[in-house]
Request: fold
Amino acid sequence: MMHSHRQLMLSLTRGSPPPRRAGFTIVELIATLILLGVVFTVSISILLAVTHSRRVAEQRQFAMQYAANLLEQAASRQWSQLTPGPQQLNPIPPDLATVLPDLEQSVEVTDLQKDFHSRQIAVTIRWKDRQGQYVAPMRLTGWAYPQEAQP
Reply:
């Protein structure tokens, strides 16, 4: 037993490294936790930005489809029923009102007397975003011609 203790003393005096302890130090643990916190913070902010962008794109898609439907409904009316001025509209569907909060809609018909006798149909819709501000209005325009005057 004495011999092994002497060998250990000799190895320590010759400059060999002391035996290492296995495990993490508190500094390594804190650095890891800080790094994980930064990664989670960045990941969550990116996820929120992607979710917001997707919601906005979905709203614009629904709004475009709804405006196209309103334009098609107006354009399919008989010429005599398509009178100039604001048009009477159906109530907003409840499922659309959940996607596009505070939706405002209008359809305006204007009589045009250029080369052909025609009527311009302008559909305008807008809604509020999550902050309660109205988004820029979406506007679609089409033209209607009497049956005998179609180009």
User: Anything to note?
Assistant: The chain has three helices and four strands. The chain has one domain: 27-149. Helices lie at 2-13, 26-75, 94-99. The first strand starts at residue 85 and ends at 86.
